User: Fold this.
Amino acid sequence: MYLKRTFYGLVATLLVAPVLAAPITVYKSLSCACCEDWVAHMQESGFDVEVINGDNLTPIKKLAGVSSELASCHTGIIDGYVIEGHVPAADVRQLLQQQPEVRGLTIPGMPQSAPGMDIPGSPYDVLSFDVQGNTEVFNRYPG
Assistant:
């Protein structure tokens, strides 16, 4: 029942979000502390965040077009874009302002210096990805 409700909520978000400026909806595990820290980062950066906790995020990621190579611990949807993992709020804002023809942004895995992880020293790239899964560097961070 929960998965069915979550699936329909994600479909509605993906279909309606391009028309209406919506809050970012974040699908995450209830027990994930780094996801909570990333949600706090987004809220502190002025984003309205709706959190949906679940045990199995694989169907959400699959529906959102996030391959296992691009996956991280949580998935967000905002204005029709997918935000996978610990993407900085500034990059989400830039994505929304520029509105490129991409499916979304991702930081595969969980780089230690990304927002929500907050342990300096690990460089990482924010990648944009399209519906075919092709990626490009959207932004680079020295760590």
Q: What stands out?
A: Residues 1-21 have pLDDT under 50 and may be disordered. The first strand starts at residue 24 and ends at 28. Helices lie at 2-16, 33-44, 58-64, 89-98. The chain has four helices and seven strands.
